Structure formats: C-alpha cells, structure tokens
Amino acid sequence: MATSNDLLIKQRSVIEFLAAEGCSAANIHARMKTVYGEMCISDCAVRKWTAHCRDESAEKGHVYSTLRALQRILTGDESWVYHYDPECKAQSMEYRHKTSPSPRKFKVVASARKVLFTVFWDMEGQTVNSERYISTLRALKLRLRRVRRDKDSILQHDNARPHTSRQTQDALRHLELTTLPHPAYSPDLAPSFYYLFPQLKKYLKGHHNDNDEKVIADVCRWCHGQSSEFFADSVRQLVERWRLCVDRDGDYVEKQSAKSEAVISPWCYGVHRELIGSVMLSMYEMEKSFVVM
C-alpha cells in the first residue's frame, strides 16, 4: 500500500500534467477528488501547485525566448591591426637569477603600417566613412542570405558616425536590417571591444608580418581557430552587461566582471563557420581594408 508521501508525490505529478494541458485549478481538483476521494489533497493545495507549475512553465518560456533573441544578434565593428605590435611587459619577461644583471631592453613601438580589420559575427561564431560601411553592409546581407536564411538577424553596432549617418540608416532600411539600440559612447556594451579585439590584439603582439597579406592571414587564422563557445561566451556576457548598465542608470561599466551566471543550452554553442570563413579584400583611399564575416 502506498504511503501518504508516495500518494502526495503522485497527486503533484497529476497536477503538473493537467496544468500543462491548460486545465483550471478548480477542474483539476474536481477530477482528482473523483479519483482519490478522501485522500485527495485540499483545493487550496491544488491551486498553489497549479500556479507553481504555470509560473515555472512561463519562466522556461521566457528563458527560451531570451536565448532565441540572443541568437538573432549579429555584432560587428572595426579595428586597426599593425604589421608589428610589440609584446607587452608580461609577454617579454624572462627568468633570471636574483644575482643576474638587469636585462637591457630597447624601446619598441608599433609599426606605422596597419590594416583596417572589419568583423561581423554572432554567438554562433559568426568598422571609415559611410560609403565604406554601406558597401560592407551590402556584402554582409548577401552572406546572410546564404548562411543564415532561416534567421531574422538583429545587427548590433555602436554609434560611430559611419554607422548612424543618414546614408547608412537609409541603406539599413533598404537592406531590411534591424538594428539593436546602443547607448552612445558605450564600448562596454560592444562585444567586439570588450571581448574579441582585446583577445585578438593580445595574440598579435610580438608577431612580425612583412606585408598586408600576412597580417590578414594571421588574423583569419586566429578567427578560425576559436571554439564555438568562445563566441557564445561573449554574447552571454552582453546580457549581464546590459543588466549592470540598467542597475547603474546607464553609467559606463569598466574593469568589472560582467560574466553572466545564466546557463545556456548546448544548442547555443554551434558555430556558423561560414560567417567567418571568407575574407573580402578592398582598397579604400590607399588604405587596405579587409572584412571577416
């Protein structure tokens, strides 16, 4: 014979099932009363557990919709990369005995030659005048039609003049690209600035590249070498950074851990390798620029 505790567990399971079907608390209690008779839990308890089940279901649905929204975000920006960028102090350290003479170091500066690196990516692994940016957006739209045709993308970029000019806004409407609102002067809310570019620049320090082509190959090799979770983690951090921004009434968030504690399902970690699988080279005003998307 089942114990009272076993019976309670069974009845809670029945409540969860019927609540998932959309039955009201009164209907659930009436049906359970017919089956369990005097052993049926009270109407108050049924109402409590029905509400609990529905709240839990709504929360799961909210999390799912939030994750779906994150998957739609496509972020992008631009940064200069040098033919040679000196190692930082930590990278150039060497082991020496305490009695060894102090090492002689020469001051080294970054090379004058550089290449403009433009990148577009999403949490699945996937900027300069307005004309240049618009031409990049057109190429981006063509790529999205091929590799992301099943998703309604949301473009996340900062408020630099080339991104907010009237020409760019007209182009965005014409290309039917939805943009995510971004507060002015907020690199703390731009994944490329707080996550991607610092990691890339750290990797490039100390690398000697003799020409533009070698710089481009070096950057692309690094991009292709990153894991799927590398890109997903940047967008997870964005959620917590948004929250910090709201909590601080819009104040800038700097040098503070903004890593989200949220658990992201494994399906969020897949990487559209095609988005970072092609490099387009263009010449702009005698400056070489390349795009990775």
UniProtKB/TrEMBL annotation:
One of the Pfam families matching this protein, by short name: Transposase_1
InterPro entries named among the record's database cross-references: RNaseH_sf, Transposase-MT_Hybrid, Transposase_1
Name of the protein this chain belongs to: Transposase
GO molecular function: nucleic acid binding
Superkingdom in the source lineage: Eukaryota
